[in-house]
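Example 404.
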Amino acid sequence: MKIALLGLGTVGQGVVEVIHENKESIAKRAGQSIEIKYILDLRSFEGEAISHLMTKDFDVIANDEEIAIVVEAMGGIEPAYTYAKASLLKGKSFITSNKELVAMHGAELLEIARNNKVNFLFEASVGGGIPIIRPLNQSLTADEIYEITGILNGTTNFILTKMQQEGRIFEDVLKEAQALGYAEKNPEADVEGYDACRKIAILSSLAFGEHVSFQDIPTDGITQITQEDMVYADNMGYVIKLLATCQKQDNSIFARVSPMLIAKTHPLAMVNDVFNGILVKGNVIGDVMFYGRGAGKLPTASAMVADIVDAAKHTGTNIISFWNREKVELKDKEQVKVNYFIRLKKDAECIESIIKEIFGQIEEVVSPYNEYAFITNLDTEASFTEKISQLSDLVIINKIRIDK
Ligand code: HSE
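Predicted structure in complex with L-homoserine:
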């Protein structure tokens, strides 16, 4: 079977490597050998072993009837979306690691694939090398899933782990994550939570069958998390993780991406470094946890090559995915109940009595600094916002959601 690869960056190179390394076992599993006929990239790779495969013209690929599968590792919406649509309409399966593309156009591309009896597969778009899309589509279909909570971004988990365990500085660890090929081209997508937001939008759309738009998901990143927060977390028996969650609450769906304090005994607390962990809760199976490398060249390539094998095995048949194009209205984030951990400057006179007057019952936290720290009672975001607005911004050092 002849395939074409779009994009020869970190992940694209990984795909070439895996197909070459595991040629024989892949051929056995796919029922035929898999051969890369073209690689599309705007850069030149003269003198390299793959240079004879290089093209800059997508039409050569689209118009070659021998090409059965197009594999995209370019990232970004365009031209990936145009190429995906064109490939599927030409009867070629399309495989991608591109979470932006899947979160934005997944439902439509799945529909085009279905109508053309080919496949649109995107295992590598969430959780790097962890199988999570296929289990949601195929293994957990007896269940009504009511919650997915996960650490879905390897870069930020790497940063938070190194900050917490080694006391290292945010910027230094980010540079290391970039050098290791974990971070996005623009690392803002990682550290501001946008990447995790797209991934939870994909998972919730698949789990609940309706289109969850990533633009509707409240998203906070990790840029406000400091070394002092890590010290507090450790003293309290907690860790700080960037969690992405989607939950069915009172017949509506709620989703959010946010740094959270979670107890060291929480199933996701031990997910460290570049690893991702995804906790799925179903009404029949109970809790299921997925764990593995969430970013990097080979883990991501592994998921893409598994999709290539799946597409080869399902030539002429569409693997059904449950993801309706209809957009779902998410639950109002202001009505979701939360606990916050809050750090305040101790400047104000009688800060303790002021806080108790505003917040009612609270849990005080011993501070290793000259600060007043406490945990709020469970209340809605709206009520919390109203209460915190009674304090001057100058007094607030930080506020982080806490899982109590
Ligand atoms: N930048 C992403 C991450 C890559 O760190 O998780 C994998 O999607």
